[in-house]
What does this fold into?
Amino acid sequence: MSHGGDRITFIDRIGDRFELKEYSEADHTALTHMYDRFTPKAVTQGLPPANDRARLEWIRYLEETGENFLAWLEDIVVAHSSLLPEPAMSRGEYLIFVDPAYRNRGLGTELTRLAITRAGQLQLQTVWLTVEALNFKAIKLYKKIGFQFCDTGERERTMILKL
It folds into this structure.
């Protein structure tokens, strides 16, 4: 991985070149297009919302309250992660969506690392997330980063990372 300004060039597991960067307001349309293309919708805990208006409101909420990171393939956003800080509680919630066509290539790992680095910069003590209990690939990624289960849910599990 090499750093070029605020963009990070990342070569994935099959040799494709992506750019990772922190979200800026200029990225709104590209981010919205990613979620418009994203399938299936509303499968993971109802996200991303299937309804166009609800999806746009959800994206705006993440943009306004979260620390957001994007993975670009040329001029298309193919993955998005968001850290939603709760400074009063010294924690933050984490979520990530990777276009199914670009999964298992390392993008999720790198976007998660960027968000965890930001959590440290914000002096958060923990980052938490929820994951579907049968989403073994996501769970493997989170465990690799250092997240641990903190509940025993059957359908959804909560994981936490202590910084």
User: Anything to note?
Assistant: The beta strands are 2-4, 7-11, 17-22, 67-73, 76-86, 91-98, 126-132, 148-149, 156-162.
